[in-house]
Design a protein that fits this description.
three-stranded antiparallel β-sheet; mainly beta; globular; plasmid; binds zinc ion; 1 helix
Length: 107
């Protein structure tokens, strides 16, 4: 379970980020925080990324405050060594609060 916070992307921004070249996601207007519960700092949701890109667009917002900001940030550089000696990547941005979100621990 992640942080339960959600927010809404404006229709304009949703259309704008959905139209980026080589986009990975269907950008929806409702965005859920991708961080772990009780994380530090602002809530964060990944809005869009590009195929083979090492950067993603993240939106940040605070509880009880109107509006948000969207930043293009590098991926989290921290990796995790699995028991089988392969490497798991973190799905979040560099410098995120809370726990890392390892790619194979979804569920
Ligand atoms: Zn959050
Ligand atoms: Zn991380």
């Amino acid at each position: 379970m992640g942080c339960p916070a959600s927010t809404v992307l404006t229709e304009t921004d949703s259309a704008r980020y959905a139209a980026l070249p080589n986009s990975v996601y269907e950008t929806s207007e409702e965005q859920w925080c991708a961080l772990s519960p009780g994380h530090d700092g602002e809530h964060a949701a990944e809005v869009q990324s590009a195929v083979f890109s090492d950067r993603s667009y993240w939106m940040f917002w605070n509880d009880g405050e109107p509006g948000y900001r969207i930043l293009l940030l590098p991926n989290c550089p921290v990796t995790c060594r699995r028991a089988d000696h392969t490497t798991a990547l973190c799905l979040l941005y560099a410098g995120h609060g809370g726990a890392h979100d390892w790619i194979d621990q979804k569920g």
